[in-house]
């Protein structure tokens, strides 16, 4: 491995600490058909738990052909960035030529200023050496387009990057810094997911996406000045701080790589190598993630445990409620044919009037009583008067009192409990007397009280 490639790989490891989401970038040269390429290129972003405005670092160098000199290729570079830069500038007057340039093409300038621009030595990045500032920084203008048939466009930023000898030195990387808000988008979820697992967010980092309406006209006008990727590594990098409270759900494409940072504490790095064969085709790295609290970290254990406890506690209660509801329905509703008599519930022996009419004192014999009324009555004998005994039949009947009938459905207004006691006095094997006693009690339901 050559010393140059070792330096590039060292830069890739050390750059894994920094910034967050961004949408797209297009590098332009001052002159058509540039003979140089961008390489290496590292676009890095750092996502913090507060999800505030994001610091973007664009670090690159130029690949100068061996047959050309950096002096003859010296020229300013330009970067078109979809989005509005804010909150991170360097002292200096704006470059009014940039504002006039976009206004001549029908755009409206929103803000102007200068962005920080540094040069970083590949061999000193791991030694916490401060970067070398480039005097004057990089002038920029943020603009929109109004009055079109499709309405107001989203902002875009046109940045001029002044030439510095460091950009052609393979031992150095030029670092353009920006801070951009609104790049982290919330993912829609219900309140249960948000409460127990935390809010989820989407972040996308893209290279060579020229589709935004404010970007495409400038790209199309200067498409012959687009600087292509070279042979050196090019990578999109997203650093997520506070990895102990981070949950990454998905990385697209699947070729994106996840690992803990080798140089930053508690930082998880998601990266994607750019394929230079894709040309101007957009290449995007998308991450779905969320930060969670200490309580939410216990959710996978606590939630099943809570449901287990509630299930055991609520089971008997639900059973009681279900039984009570079933009893209530059974007490007020009956199913049956409309002409049916109310269906009663019987226990013991209940002798009706028709049957008792067949038991005639002085005529009906003992054996006939047992055949008509049942073979197992209570027997009460009188020892003082041999030949005389009393047969006792006891029974209960619960009778519903109908209210209204709808086809086969009958509503019940109340229930009555009837206690039946029938005494048949026998003398010398012949019935001498019959007495029937009925006691009625009103009930709230079809269940009989314990006797």
What's this model, at a glance?
With 451 residues, this protein is an alpha+beta fold. The protein has helices at residues 3-14, 96-103, 191-197, 216-221, 294-297, 299-332, 353-356, 366-373, and strands at 26-29, 37-47, 54-63, 77-82, 108-115, 117-121, 132-133, 138-144, 156-161, 172-180, 184-186, 201-207, 234-241, 246-252, 257-260, 267-273, 283-291, 333-335, 345-348, 378-381, 388-406, 409-427, 430-443. 18% of the residues lie in helices and 39% in strands.
User: What's the end-to-end separation, in Å?
Assistant: 100 Å
Q: What is the helix tally?
A: 8
What is the SS-derived class?
A: alpha+beta
- Overall average residue pLDDT: 82
How would you explain this protein's 3D organization?
By secondary structure, the protein is an alpha+beta fold. The protein folds into two domains: 295 residues, no CATH class; 108 residues, no CATH class. The chain has eight helices and 23 strands. The strands form four sheets. Strands 7-6-10-3-2-13-16-15 form an eight-stranded mixed β-sheet, with no helix packed on it. Strands 18, 19, 20, 21, 22 and 23 form a six-stranded antiparallel β-sheet that branches. Strands 1-4-9-8-5 form a five-stranded antiparallel β-sheet, with helices on one face. A hairpin with a 2-residue loop joins strand 22 and strand 23.
